[in-house]
Amino acid sequence: MVRNMFFVRQRTNQCGLHAIQNMFKSASVSNEDMRKAVETIHAETGDHKMNHESFGGDWSVSAVVTAVKERGYDVERGVVTKANNQREWHGQELEKLLEDEKFQGVIIHQPMIRHYTCIRPEVVNGKKHLFYVDSQSEGPIRISSRLAMRRCLSKAYAWEPYVVKGLPMEYVAPIQLPEPTTRQKTFNPTKDFMQEWRALPKTDYSHYMRETKTEVPESRQLEKEEDHQGASEARDSMGM
Q1: For residue 69, how many other CB atoms are within 10 A of its CB?
Q2: Domain boundaries, the chain
Q3: What is the 3-state secondary structure (H, E, C) of 151-195?
Q4: What is the CATH number of domain 15-165?
Q5: For the segment 117-172, what is each residue's pLDDT rounded down to a tens digit?
Q6: Phi/psi zone of residue 91: left (φ > 0), alpha (ψ -120 to 50 degrees), beta?
Q7: What pTM value is reported for the model?
Q8: Which residue in 166, 120, 125 sits closest to 145, CA to CA?
Q9: How far apart are CA 74 and CA 81, in angstroms?
Q10: Distance between CA 56 and CA 101 in Å, rounded?
């Protein structure tokens, strides 16, 4: 993980939006853009809006892709599935895409866990590298093009990549939300409360302890004496 890189951490179920922002390194695309994308899909296809957006986010792939396209970017699916159920990379491979100045990154849909992440190019020490960015993690992590493609083609991971090309997006700083805190609030009683509490009469429990002291019941004591007497008689009869 590399520090001091653009990173938007996920707070709610808006990973689709955060994947777009982390890929472009800009918060220019907002919740309003996502809602407009859903409206566009509904107007063009008649599909219900609830199929593309739930309360608080959780956008469909169509909504995420449409939001990017409406900003003037080209989006192409990176993997296709053949008739034999084999996954194949479609178009330029990631290593070659690094040489393309219009390559902005890859939006990744992970259907198995219903999550969106992204891969984006970054210049480190004068050389371009790919970085994997998950809004639920601690920040961008460098990833090789070979490993990224392998996870896209693997049925176990089944990453669905969407390659994005276009001009760099204008920079908009993300909204910095306060870090969640788990510190428990402490109760500080008021002065009046403490005065009233100290003024309460003290309860003497000594008599209660005396009354509840465990004693052997008389009937049980007689049983013990009879048992003892019976044992003595038995020993006498045996000549012990």
Answers
A1: 15
A2: 15-165, 191-237
A3: HHHCCCCCCEEEEEECCCCCCCCCCCCCCCCCCCCCCCCCHHHHH
A4: 3.90.70.40
A5: 999 999 999 999 999 999 999 999 999 999 999 999 999 998 999 999 999 999 99
A6: left
A7: 0.73
A8: 120
A9: 21
A10: 35
